[in-house]
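Deliverable D5.2: sample structural annotation.
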Amino acid sequence: MSSAPSGIRNLELLGIYLNDHLAASTGGIELVRRMLGRHRASTYGPRLEELLGELREERSALKTTMQALGIPVRQYKQALTWVGEKLARGKLNGALLSRSPLSDLVEFEFIAIAVLAKRAGFETLLSLTDVDPRIDRVLFERLINQADKQHHWLADARREVAAELFGGRSELADAAADT
């Protein structure tokens, strides 16, 4: 287990970790693009557009950080994630030849969870700013705050979609939520 001259331990493991997060960001961008195709004209459309732009910016920041650290991008992980996202569209959700209303809820749930995982990756990078000046502390503090805002909106939207699909009141779920 090697240590980089900067003080980062296990740089090869960090490379695997960051490539996994980069691949996940590719999948997240593809999912939000699909969601936007479905919700562009709805009340969710403008916020999904904003989210897509933020996800692209975050992906770029991650790639720039990897480059600064000398960590190569593993293109095969990007490709596998892209293909995996396309295959996930064929999941069993109660409708074989058409889009199920359940798909909206599952997509909002999935992207909300993915934002929390992404935030955790940003926290990891933030924790390394003390040992490696090539990692931009201000950038990752901002991206963590951005992820918090994204998750709060997505959690609210998910609760609304669930109430529209199954009935009930999203306000009750809002009151029970910690986000």
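Annotation notes: The CA atoms of residues 6 and 132 lie 5 Å apart. The chain has one domain: 11-176.
The annotation will be released with the project's public dataset once the embargo ends.
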